Amino acid sequence: MRVELKRPAWIEIDFKALEKNYNFIRSRIDKKTKIAAVVKANAYGHGAAKIAPKLSQLGVEYFCVSSPDEGIELRRAGIKKPILVLAEVLETQYSEIVKGDLTQAAASLETISALDKLGAKAKKKVKVHLVVDTGMGRIGFFPDQLNEAYQLAKKLKNIKIDGIFSHLARADEKDKTYSYQQLQKFNSALDNIRESGFKLPLIHIGNSAAIIDLKESFLDLVRPGIILYGLLPSKNLNNEAALTPILSFKTRVVQLRQLSAGSAIGYGSTYKTENKEKLAVLPIGYKDGYPRLLSNQGEVLINGQRAPIRGRVCMGQTIVSVDHIKNVEVGDEVVLIGKQGEKEISAAEIAEICGTINYEIVCNLSERLEKIYV
Q: Which of 54, 198, 271, 357 has the smallest C-beta neighbourhood within 10 Å, fewest atoms?
């Protein structure tokens, strides 16, 4: 596909692959279990305003974001389904919760009381999901505090409890001992509420890793994130999961150069040619979210072959060797993440070189990169 954009650096998003990943998730979970698509961080760098409407069309029942402003963005994109803000927020953000008809994760008695007052002022009920800390150590009520929080929220006139949830800290590991301990704590806390005579709302704890490897987490709702975008949460999971990455990161060759033996390349002269070498200049760098840690280590695809990076990745330029690749011309398409012919460079491969996770690689791609949805 020939792409004419403001600059020769772009992201392609494959909606067919997104649908395939969605169908894989549906095939894994119980029929009664709903899907709450996690589209925080601009849908992990994939473009929430485009991704969410497509997922809604496919049948997703809920959406999850990390802050009220992300929820407002989805409303502006036409999403009418429930949107859950997963993180705690400050009082200055409360008005956006009401404005966007969002559901807020409530992790403290103070938050519940403050939202009740805001609801009274706005003359409407504020929907909340109570958060239980079963071992993540991040936010939430401890299991022995949940009953008290539930009873307080039930008494308040302007609070509606729509759900209770927790988050699995180590579901992406082969050893599920810790996850089972979390499930036990969660179920125990829920039993205390049942014994008090209260009816439970939507219950959820399953994340992407649990959808693949932990059927016991299939409750009323599951919260797939990274697997919607075709990426595994970790290499420790079942690698037979039928997932297809939906993102490709591409650019074009803007210049070809021939350097003589002993020539230095880039800042710090960290690479010197041993022989004369043909090089291609790419108009991308760490300002685009392409990691500087790939300097002298990473590779790109040109004409279906791997081309190694020479020297340091600069802010807006990267140099690669094409000495071994025939017929390279200015304007040729270059794949930094994705497939070209039979070769592929994955976000996971880049993450391993950089000592991080694939989540960070795709999330850090610059929002200034134009996106094409195909």
A: 198
* Catalytic pick among 40, 127, 185, 371: 40
- Binding residue per annotation — 138? yes
Q: What is the pTM of this model?
A: 0.94
Q: How many residues does the chain have?
A: 374
Distance CA 30, CA 34 (A): 9
Q: How far apart are CA 111 and CA 106, in angstroms?
A: 6
Residue 196 to residue 190: CA distance in whole angstroms: 10
> How many CA atoms are closer than 13 Å to the CA of 64, on its beta-carbon side?
23
**CA distances in angstroms from 173 to 94, 218, 236, 286, 333, listed in the order given:** 36, 18, 6, 31, 37
> Residue 157, SS3?
coil
- What is each CA distance from 26 to 21, 177, 218, in whole angstroms? 9, 26, 11
CATH topology of domain 247-345: Lyase, Ornithine Decarboxylase; Chain A, domain 1 (2.40.37)
- Catalytic hit among 215, 267, 276, 287: 267
The question of whether 235 is a catalytic residue gets the answer no
Q: Which amino acid is at 54?
A: K
C-alpha pair distances (Å), 61 with each of 149, 203, 337: 26, 14, 30
The β-bridge relationship of strands 62-65 and 34-38 is: parallel
Which among 283, 285, 301, 310 is positioned nearest to 366, based on CA atoms?
Answer: 285
Assigned CATH class of 15-229: alpha beta
Mean pLDDT by 10 residues, the chain (374 residues): 76 98 96 97 98 98 97 97 95 91 96 94 95 96 95 95 97 96 97 89 96 95 98 82 94 97 97 97 98 98 98 98 96 97 97 97 96 96
Does residue 40 have an active-site annotation?
Answer: yes
Domain ranges in the chain?
15-229, 247-345
Q: Does the annotation list 315 as a binding residue?
A: yes
